[in-house]
Amino acid sequence: MGKVFTWEVNDSTVEIKSNNQRLIVQVITDEIIRFLIPKWKADYKSVAIEGDVTVPTDFDVDETEEGIEIKTGQVTLKIMENFQFAFLDRYGDEILSSYQGKRVIKDNYSDKAIGFLESEGHDTHNLKKHEYAIQVLFNLRNEERFYGMGDKTGFLNKRGYAYENWNSDIPQIHHENMPALYKSIPFFIGKGAGYVYGMFFDNTFHSYLDFGKENNNYFFYGADNGNLDFYFMGGENIADVVEHYTYLTGRAPLPQLWTLGYHQCRWGYESAEDIRNVAKEMRGHGIPCESIQYDIDYMDGFRVFTWDEKEYGKPGELIAELEEDGFKAVCIIDPGVKVDDAYSIYSEGIKKDYFAHDKDGNVYTNEVWPGESVYPDFGRKEVRKWWAGNHKALTDIGMQGIWNDMNEPASFNGPLPLDVKFSVNDRLTNHEEAHNVYGHFMSQATYEGMKELTGKRPLVITRACYAGTQKYSAVWTGDNQSVWSHLQMLIPQLCNLGMSGFTIAGTDIGGFGGDTNPELLIRWIEASTFCTFYRNHCAKGQMNQEPWQFGETVLDIYRKYVKLHYRFLPYIYDLLFESQITGLPVMRPLVLHYEDDENTFNLNNEFLVGENMLVAPVLEQGATKRMVYLPVGTWVNYWTGQRFSGGVHIIVDAPIDMMPIFIKEGSIIPMYEEVQYVGEEPYDTLKLLIAGESAWGTHYQDNGEDFEYLEGEYNLYSFTYEDGKLDCDMLHEGYEKYTDIQWEKI
Ligand code: MIG
User: How crowded is residue 41: how many other Cβ atoms within 10 Å of its Cβ?
Assistant: First the structure.
């Protein structure tokens, strides 16, 4: 074999050459190995992974009969002829290997048959074989399952489906089998009996992942361009893989506490009066609320960073008025800048050459809300800095959070051609490479601007993003619809986003497109009780869906759940604190903690919040009972106190005002008093909910606003409950403590 390969070790990398082909293996940690075939660029600087994440790690390189073996304490990578490969765990068992055969499409239709189908308007995309510029096939085992992949629609387990990574604005209904949505997170967790691994394909070009849809013998990755550049992650369990992936691409920083509260929005509040009325109704009905969000109508002719004085009054006035009543202001900002010489953002951007050009060197225009518009080249640091600074116009009038939309980027006049010139990490390139990271760079600019301007932890919400954007922004799942299948989709979609790094995420409660109805709205607010982005939002032209639109019963139930969300805020916040250390999300599929229990493998209709709560929303019209799977352990019904030994399916009552919630025995859940908004009253009393005779829990506390916690200004409590007595240990003390800690048993 020595004849076929030459290889050379250089610090953490092993460079292997064979027949003019080059493979670079980089040992990142003893569980993370990068595999790079630089068809395009050997020195590619990642967008998702910032800085040098390589940890000096001991590894051996040996020549064997078959080829080369690179071995860390945890993982062995075997490289064979033609760069075929296999990853083994530390016991020498194979976890993942390349597939030696060729792609075989089962259904081979003739061109004539395809033409016939097309003439009737059928989609024949799947009947044709597409060979990709970059393509790699992996052996697929019968029992192998796949999780992750960001916001893709459908079920928790992606096995049997094929996906594309190409950020797409899809206003039509999102079905379970859509190839692509707004976000591209080319990361998945492969799981079978006794093995688990993660794969992250760091390539921003249009890419494809087929999890055994084309053929049951292999799964494959394809890309239209770029490198074959992936990170293999080992680990003992799914949680380890999530930890490794978020080690690479970063973790969501702790948000401000208020941002986790309730937000009301709709596209269609068209004046100060509209916004003021909604605020008044919220308080009048006693529904806790942090912000009424400003959708595109607040701008002057959809010019970003402006304010429509005609409909919304003097800039700052409405915001200040609502602030008196505890409301914060959050507004939408789109990337498209209106072509208008009299508009300073446009003229300044033109003067400084900040907008993308077409292939002939003219500033590229397309159409979005403001009409003819140009696209800032966010992949340039200088442009991001400028964009960041533009937010001063908004923070000066009191804006506290930014919602980034349309940043796939979307366009009304056909898609942006692939040869439009954009930059990636300050390198001029084409839209083809920059497309999937356009939203990422926009979010980064927004985050950095808001951080600099306010000194607080920025609230940025984005629709489009790439792997790693979690460092800068929360996400929502875009234009869902008021249909039951979209309520059902909430669980797998948010769980998979969570395992892909996006722990701060939510859906439009009630559904964005289409008309909601009372029952659906109630079940949706119930199912969202533990969402980290918690907003009711609706499209222009649809029936109003604020909580008071459907009478007293709906209002009462709605209020009950928003209040419950506020009571559990400290638990959610604790999990977000933990998330910075472990990368684990707040909302977790059961398989994350019970991965050997086959009842959890394809469980789409219940989820865990942290490790200690299990939530089973009703997701079907008309249902008032539902089946719940309780994994091993003792689980206590939050509403009734009834105890169950896990490992069983039970039937629980779930009338319209009840969403089943279970607390794990042995845990202590921190809770707060109800408020109308975060900060209405100081949170000086902590309430502990203790499940069982012997229980333990930790709790994190800080000022909920700025970065002082990084300087040690926080408290970390450890509570132990035993023999009817509660003990408190301070694991860290650096902030004003609660004046009162009360507890209650369940
Ligand atoms: O083309 O700003 O997903 O939340 O209300 C529609 C108007 C543009 C899409 C977003 C939606 C928002 C809407 N926007």
Answer: 12
Q: Are residues 535 and 491 in the same domain?
A: yes
Domain boundaries, position 109:
6-249
Residue 572: per-residue pLDDT:
98
Distance 366 CA to ligand 1 centre (A): 17
Q: Sign of dihedral through CA atoms 580, 586, 591, 594?
A: positive
> What's the CATH code of the domain at 140?
2.60.40.1760
Report the range of poorest mean pLDDT among 125-139, 505-519, 571-585, 591-605.
125-139
- Verify that 318 and 241 share a domain, yes or no: no
Q: Report how far ligand 1's centroid is from the alpha carbon of 335 (Å).
A: 13
Percent above pLDDT 70 for the chain: 99
Q: Measured between alpha carbons, how far is 645 from 647 in angstroms, rounded to an integer?
A: 7
**Is residue 3 pLDDT above 60, yes or no?**
no
User: To the nearest whole number, what is the mean pLDDT of the chain?
Assistant: 97
User: Of 560, 582, 604, which one is at a domain's C-terminal end?
Assistant: 582
The best mutation among 169, 295, 480 to test binding of ligand 1, ranked by most ligand atoms within 8 Å of the C-beta, falls on 295
pTM of the model: 0.97
HSE-CB for 107 with a 13 A CA cutoff: 10
In terms of Cα–Cα distance, which of 264, 263, 351, 336 is closest to 305? Answer: 336
Give the nearest ligand 1 atom to 267 CA. Answer: 5
Per-residue pLDDT, averaged over 414-421, amounts to 98
The set of catalytic residues is 405, 408, 479
Mean pLDDT of 231-258: 98
Show the beta-strand stretches assigned E in 398-443: 399-404, 421-424, 427-430
pLDDT in tens, 255-314: 999 999 999 999 999 999 999 999 999 999 999 999 999 999 999 999 999 999 999 999
User: How many domains does the chain fold into?
Assistant: 2
What number is the average pLDDT over the span 573-585? 98
Counting from 1 in the atom list of ligand 1, the atom nearest the Cα of 265 is: 5
Q: Do 521 and 574 lie in a common domain?
A: yes
Confidence of residue 22 (pLDDT cuts 50, 70, 90): very high
Distance from the alpha carbon of residue 181 to the mean position of ligand 1, in angstroms: 14
Pocket of ligand 1 (CB under 6 A): 267, 295-296, 332, 405, 463, 478-479, 512, 537
481 and 546 share one domain: yes
In this structure, are 236 and 264 located in the same domain?
Answer: no
What does the pLDDT read at residue 11? 96
- What are the structure tokens assigned to 500, written together? 């892909």
244 and 282 part of one domain: no
The reply to whether 207 and 271 lie within a common domain is: no
In angstroms, the Cα distances linking 499 to 106, 110, 301, 492 are 32, 41, 39, 10
In the three-class reduction of DSSP (H, G, I as helix; E, B as strand; rest coil), residue 125 is classed as helix
pLDDT of residue 109: 81
Residues 19-47, mean pLDDT to the nearest whole number = 96
Which string of b and e fits 235-251 if b means at least 16 CB within 10 Å?
beebbbbbbbbbbbbbb
Q: Could you tell which of 293, 406, 480, 537 is best to mutate to test the pocket of ligand 1, judged by most ligand atoms within 8 Å of the CB?
A: 406
Q: What pLDDT, on a 0 to 100 scale, did the predictor assign at position 653?
A: 98
Q: Report yes or no on 185 lying in a domain.
A: yes
Could you tell me the distance, in angstroms and rounded to a whole number, from the CA of residue 412 to the centre of ligand 1? 13
Question: Do the domain assignments include residue 696?
Answer: no
Q: Looking at ligand 1, which residue's alpha carbon is closest to its atom 13?
A: 267
The residues pairing with 22 across neighbouring beta strands, listed in sequence order, are 17
Say whether both 124 and 36 belong to one domain: yes
**Per-residue pLDDT for 1 more than 70?**
no
Which of 168, 174, 267, 330 gets mutated to test ligand 1 (max ligand atoms within 8 A of its CB)? 267
Residue 179 has pLDDT above 70, yes or no: yes
Centre of ligand 1 from the C-alpha of residue 328, in Å: 20
649: left (phi over 0), alpha (psi -120 to 50) or beta: beta
Give the residue whose CA is nearest to atom 2 of ligand 1.
296
596 Cα: distance to centroid of ligand 1 (angstroms)? 41
